[in-house]
Design goal:
The chain is mostly helical and 333 residues long. The protein has a domain at 50-66 and 159-328: Hypothetical protein af1432. The chain has helices at 4-8, 19-27, 48-66, 77-86, 93-101, 104-114, 128-135, 137-153, 160-183, 191-197, 200-216, 223-244, 249-256, 270-284, 298-303, 308-320. Helix content is 60%, strand content 0%. The structure holds fe (ii) ion (FE2). Fe (ii) ion is lined by residues 36, 198-199, 234-235, 258-259, 278.
């Protein structure tokens, strides 16, 4: 199989970063709003000064990554190990159990999920091996990533409120991505992970900016001042980070194109699924400014060959998301 990464994932573009132009092109004709508004950023006119500041910020981020010294957030061993095991043709249950048992938080969560109403088939489980067997390797991997995201990845000093929103929206996106495939009569083993990590680039950018501010002894800039840089860059940086973490091409490519799904050639259309999940989140007002779906989302439903009935059922699901928000809160550490 050809290496898709050599085709698409560019480590860092050279020259001036077309933050603004790229954003405009990203949404053209897709029904997606590329500059997804954020709850913590009040809607206001973007001034020339904002654009100049955002371009400077983008250049700082680029310089940090270009330097070769930047290391993406460390992915804990449990996530690395489970990700690798999930990619094997045969899954050795002993290896999974050993990996999970080294992380008590993940182990406890796996047993809890295995015994949840949705998964409980028969007697309650107390053994880790039984829980792993009941859930399967992909769900076990997804739970580990969910824990890691909540305890490590979505933790950025100076931007804690936005991190709470982002973590909540990421978990909802994972669930929605899985449900979109289900509505198509399909299963994707990567759907939840793609949804969970699709905006990880935003956390990384905020982390770089927060650290640069700390080193200079400055207060981190407000979200509204850096919004253009984040909107224009997060997909690309998210894909770059996932590639550093050695996640699959499916994950990397879908994250790269989640605001430009028309560029993707993935037959499973994961980038379109993420774009629709994002749009459904906006419909619910989770992680972004509330933006009810109108006909503007029709191209996404059509691209995914979702009938009006299935589209309606996904909209109903999105409208019920707010009642689940308590489950997705960022854990206190
Ligand atoms: Fe995004």
């Amino acid at each position: 199989m050809a290496d898709k990464d050599s085709r698409r994932v560019v480590p860092v573009p050279s020259g001036k970063i077309p933050v603004i132009k790229g954003m405009v092109a990203a949404g053209a004709g897709t029904g997606i709003t590329p500059s997804a508004p954020v709850l913590t950023v009040p809607r206001r006119e973007i001034t020339d000064a904002d654009r100049e500041f955002a371009e400077r910020i983008a250049q700082v981020v680029k310089a940090v990554i270009d330097s070769g010294k930047y290391k993406p957030p460390l992915l804990p061993e449990i996530a690395v190990t489970l990700s690798a095991i999930a990619n094997k043709p045969e899954v050795p249950i002993e290896e999974v159990e050993v990996a999970v048992s080294r992380d008590p938080v993940v182990a406890a969560k796996i047993v809890s999920v295995a015994n949840s109403a949705l998964n409980a088939r028969g007697a309650a489980l107390s053994s880790l091996r039984g829980a792993i067997t009941r859930l399967g390797i992909f769900q076990v991997r997804d739970i580990a990533f969910q824990v890691v995201a909540g305890t490590r990845l979505f933790r950025v000093p100076g931007y804690s409120e936005r991190m709470k929103e982002l973590f909540e929206a990421s978990q909802a996106a994972g669930m929605l991505a899985r449900e979109i495939y289900r509505a198509r009569g399909e299963i994707s083993e990567a759907a939840y992970l793609c949804g969970l990590l699709h905006d990880i680039g935003e956390a990384v950018i905020l982390g770089i900016i927060g650290e640069a501010s700390r080193v200079r002894g400055e207060t981190p800039p407000s979200l509204s001042r850096i919004k253009i840089a984040v909107d224009g860059y997060h997909a690309w940086i998210g894909a770059w980070v996932c590639k550093q973490w050695k996640l699959s091409d499916t994950v990397t490519d879908a994250i790269l194109d989640h605001h430009t799904p028309e560029r993707s050639t993935d037959p499973m259309q994961m980038a379109y699924v993420l774009a629709l999940a994002d749009r459904l989140l906006a419909h619910a007002g989770i992680g972004t400014e509330w933006q009810p779906i109108t006909k503007s989302a029709a191209p996404l439903f059509q691209a995914l060959k979702l009938s009006p009935e299935r589209a309606a059922s996904l909209l109903r699901l999105a409208e019920s998301l707010n009642s689940m928000r308590a489950e997705w809160a960022l854990p206190s550490v």
